[in-house]
Amino acid sequence: MKIGLFTSGYQRNPLEHAFEDAKRFGYDYVELWGGRPHGFAPDLKAGDLDVVKRLIQRYEMPVRGYTPEHNAYPYNFMLGSESMRVDCVSYLKTCMDMGKALGAEFTMISPAHGGYYTTHEEMWGRLVRTVQELADYADHLQHTLIVEALTPFETNVIKSPQELSRLMKEVETPYLAAMCDVVPPSVQGESIMPYFSLLGEKMRHLHLVDARPGEDTHYVPGDGILPLKELLAEIKTTGYEGTATIELVTNYIQEPRLHARRAVENLRRLMEE
User: Fold this and answer.
1) Distance (Å, rounded) from C-alpha 4 to C-alpha 32?
2) What is the pLDDT of residues 155-174, one digit of tens each?
3) What is the pTM of this model?
4) Could you give the number of structural domains in the chain?
5) Xylose isomerase-like TIM barrel domain location, by residue (predicted)?
6) CATH for 254
7) Which domain holds residue 88?
8) Does residue 109 register a pLDDT over 90?
């Protein structure tokens, strides 16, 4: 299993620090966060793509995943008017263009909150329509689109492997896949392993961190209550060969370099035990 560094926690540092640290600390790849000041897709398209490519070459550190910012402000394809949805779809197509251009294996999306006054049928219809449009574009690019389930703090649309599995069946294409962030099932008091059994070969990526009861904070492995050693052993039995990014996000934003080192050292140790 390849281990990646997520750049979101480095947003107050130069992006080069993330690539340098991924190399120094023994990560296998970088997952590029698509927000300013580092990897916003329109900025990449306007010229910053070459900046990131130079970092990839300089540190011999591939970008295997591109994760655009789009489930809060100003983009959320689950909320607002049809013109707002169309605008978000256009933005995410640009994101996929940039993910492909970076040499990433996938671009990741996460359906955000659909609103308090929307029926389940309305939300699901909007979701399927949007993901179908994006999946068709992924087919055109021959670039994988990965869908992430979120916590109930972030969404009322896709929160579980059951919902992801349904979506995979309703939007059928080899370029659409799913992933598991271990925090959403932890927050909801649910199991992590059904992501592997219910999604099968569609299960392509992990956000692997630690968690604490009732919190959606992403902790350094070893700082929470998840039995990560045992979880890693169970994942190994499934034959999973996808990627696993240590998604520290912004909880450690003051000292991302220190915690990125500690995180991968802890996780590597657990994988070897």
Assistant:
1) 10
2) 999 999 999 999 999 999 99
3) 0.95
4) 1
5) 19-269
6) 3.20.20.150
7) 2-272
8) yes
CB atoms within 10 A of CB 103: 12
For residues 60 and 93, is the Cβ–Cβ distance under 8 A?
no
In Å, how far are 62, 151, 159, 260 from 22, measured between CA atoms? 10, 27, 30, 8
Beta bridge partners of 195: none
Sign of the Cα pseudo-torsion (196, 198, 199, 205, in order): negative
User: Quick one: the chain helix, strand, coil %, rounded to 5?
Assistant: 45, 15, 35
> Which candidate in 247, 255, 272, 273 is catalytic?
247
The answer to whether 105 is a known catalytic residue is no
247 catalytic residue (yes or no): yes
- Angle at CA of residue 216, ends 147 and 161, nearest 5°: 35
Distances (CA, A) of 20 to 7, 47, 64, 83, 218: 11, 21, 16, 41, 22
How far apart CA 258 and CA 240 sit, in angstroms, is: 29
pLDDT in tens, 122-138: 999 999 999 999 999 99
